[in-house]
Specification:
The protein is α+β, with helices and mostly antiparallel strands and 229 residues long. 29% of the residues lie in helices and 11% in strands. It has 7 helices and 7 strands. The chain has a 3-stranded antiparallel sheet with strand order 3-5-4. A two-stranded antiparallel sheet has the order 1-2. A hairpin with a 2-residue loop joins strand 6 and strand 7 (222-226).
């Protein structure tokens, strides 16, 4: 008599693939066109693409990795269901991201980067552009496009490329293990190398990250979960 195995918790598909292949296979149903290697879009996917592994059905992901203008950004943002982060006057994120952050914030005090929230949460195209112009210029953008400059991506996102436009990122001042654990247990992780303040809503439990192709990288003593591209 054969005993059928008890169904375990959801197993990630593609475990026979390496991390990079698995990551690309898992995001194909989220991103209509996967950028070709060495293109500007691929460089941005490598830096900011972690959110595309979010498995929550209610989370909306952008149809491409970079919006060309304010109109495209607004069009996407108009389709989002937003939730408010508790204790702020105008910090909004996609509802499941806000709910998860609210749970983490109820467990331990987690201050925003700016202290009050609005620009730390969902941004519009103009704010993304303003931040870029504060730290970089067209020459820098050209260097990024050619793949010659990538460290800037850990300081500021090029216009139209920020995860903050998607309602799935927040800037926080996290200084201790309890804060980090509360965020991680609720699906929030540091995913942008060198950007210590930036947290992305991935929606996965810590023990699932490697299974989904995330790579753990320690930079200057800080733990990041980055894309394997």
């Amino acid at each position: 008599q054969t005993v059928s195995p008890t169904p375990s918790t959801q197993i990630t598909p593609y475990l026979n693939l390496n991390e990079k292949e698995r990551f690309l296979a898992l995001i194909t149903n989220k991103l209509p066109t996967i950028p070709a290697p060495n293109t500007y879009e691929y460089i941005l996917l490598r830096a900011y693409g972690s959110a595309f592994l979010n498995q929550k059905p209610e989370v909306k992901l952008p149809p491409k990795v970079v919006f060309n203008n304010d109109q495209e950004t607004k069009q996407f943002q108009s389709t989002l269901t937003m939730g408010k982060v508790n204790g702020t006057s105008n910090c909004y994120l996609q509802k499941s991201a806000a709910d998860a952050l609210n749970i983490a914030k109820s467990q331990v005090q987690i201050p925003f980067k700016s202290g009050y929230g609005a620009s730390d949460c969902t941004r519009n195209f103009a704010t993304n552009l303003r931040f870029w112009q504060k730290y970089a210029n067209n020459n820098t953008l050209e260097q990024v496009r050619q793949g010659k400059e990538t460290k800037i991506l850990g300081l500021v996102a090029p216009p139209g490329a920020s995860q903050h436009l998607w309602g799935l990122a927040v800037d926080l001042r996290v200084s201790n293990e309890a804060q980090k654990q509360a965020l991680n247990q609720n699906g929030w992780y540091r995913t942008v190398e060198y950007d210590v303040l930036h947290w992305t809503y991935v929606g996965l439990a810590p023990d699932k990250l490697a299974e989904f192709g995330f790579q753990n990288k320690v930079v200057e003593g800080i733990n990041y979960w980055v894309t394997p591209l």
